[in-house]
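Notebook entry, cofactor series.
This is the third protein in the set we're modelling with a bound small molecule. For this one the ligand is zinc ion. I'm keeping the input format identical across the series so the outputs can be compared line by line later. Sequence and SMILES below, as received.
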Amino acid sequence: MARTAAPAHGWWGTQWLEYMVHEHLHSPLTSGQIKGAERGDAVFTFGRGQVSVCVEVGSYGSTETATLKVKPLGEREWKRVVGALAERPDVARRLLSGAPGAELAQAFDAADVPLFPTPSGRSLRCSCREDWGCRHVRVLAVRGAPMLDLNPFLWLQVLGRSREDLLAAVRARLADQAGSEQGKPEAALLSVSPERFLATETDPVAIPVRPGSSTTPDALLRMLGPIPLPAEQSRFERFAEVELESGGITYEQVVETADEVLARFVQQISSGAAELAAGDRAPRHFDEPLPGKRVPLKQRLVPEIEEAVGRAEGCVYLGELWRACPTAAALPWNLAAKALREAWNDLPEEYVILAGHYVARRSGLLAGTTFRHVITFSEWHSGQLDLGADWAWMMGMAGFAAPYPMQIGQATCQSDQAFDLLALRVGDELQITVADPMAPLLFATLQRREKRSLTAALDIDREAATLVARHLEFEEEDGIEYVDAVELLFAHGFYREGRCPDAAWLLPAPAVGNQVYWGYHGALTAQSWRRTGMAFDQYRFGIWHDRQNTLNQFAGTLLQAGLTRKEVDQALAFIEVWIRHWPGDQRQARHAPTLGALLHFLWNAAPVETRRVRLAPEWVPFVMGRWFRLLSEQNQKLEPVFEPHIAACDQAEAYAYRQATLPVGRNEGAAMEAWLMEGYRWIGRELCLGRQGY
Ligand SMILES: [Zn+2]
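Returned structure with ligand:
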């Protein structure tokens, strides 16, 4: 993973950040806060007496504006500064050349004027009213730094002098000092002969360079002679702007030869370069077309992205591509991000986009990755590993198709044969490691459920949930799909040795710490008001009023099976508990309890209930199994529906394990949460979140 830290700043950026942190924010920025501040759209405005930034919030185009107010310098203070500048030729020269640095601070010192004035009262505000705690003021601090590095005059403008005014004042002062004794600018044009130029023994360093306008900026073109093009191909038309005497503007068609087009551009480029060199113009990006066939941005970006990803190891973040691709680096962030995202679609097959923010190469993507996979009821029942699991999703991203060859101990099999080979049970865990990223060979090690710790992964789960929550806060306030969370974690170096969280859908479990929640349709969200419960709380159908009849029949079958009257009463009491959990008429196919609801009752609720009613634990699966058999016998339509229900009840030792591991005594709260989370692991994502496989 090649994430860079906060970019290094130049002198101005560093000063600005220190000023913001010490004088305004009053606490250092964490690397997380810096990263957060670097994301999203932000538009800066530097004006006299204030700097503000308009930060886009969420994806609905709403914004917040953070503003720093600074008292501009007075007339007298500026005079002192200009005087101090003119006294130091080196500083003045740097200033005039457009690159004022640390010496400028000394000139301010010499003039006894603070370059970064100490604030009086509250000078930092934000429209979100959180004031200095919010992300928007951090955007102001963090992203203001590179802007001042690029153009320090922005700060002088805040202090009250535009660049032009300040330079004019310094020039005037220098001219006063110099009097008229020396130097008109020399004539810039040299006579050039190509032979002499190539044969010269002159050291190029010794050639004086005088930025400034030349009387013949196209001298080089004239020397090269006309472009060898036939006349009919050397004819170009364009519209030129013409000012009318009335003050308006009109357009007039102009016909030019190739030489004229080239000369026009050379003149514009050289005069622009001269202005830049002399500091009379700030660098700026123009998105204007040049003549000829335009190469679309994304066509230029595709090879640049490939090169940048080739240089990096692992996944490259969008913001890093912005810096690494020359074409993107020349664009403002919002345009660059859009162009890079468009270019992603044109990348060759070999490249893959993760979570919408990261690019990686497929080959080697999964080198050394390890996933935790706890067997769910649905998997056990179908005898197949779930191909929607985190590891299977990432195998698909790497371009492999199931089934995958799997090595388990000494044996090798296909991933769809693992159940037979290992006699897997619900709650057993496979650690699945990608042994060879170029060929899809998986190593699997098995841990039986009795050997697993229910809390072993919680620390790394919390770390993963924190990352997802932060991503949700800054990038996707509406929540993300489960698979995007998997990709995000992957891009951030999870699923490696020692950094192996639970399946991403389990990160909202209360045991992990409530930073993210289950949102609608199995998505993850950071908004507690957007969350949904587990799906088995959502299916409740009416009240089963005439249930007594069925209960009587149930009592009959139990007596026939040889139970005592007392045992039958206990069993009936327990079924009443189950009916409280699923109050609808369980004989009706359309009100039939879902498998998820049954498993939730059986593995999460019943162990607690039976402890309360002092029922022998081995009775629960037996009684529940009998109950579903009776319902199936009474309504043939329910036979296929309840087949997995009966299979679940027949898993007596699975129930016994849940009952035996139910926490008791002190620390019950945290232990109980971890125990419940294990129950959810067993039930699985599909059944917990309502995508019923049955
Ligand atoms: Zn704010």
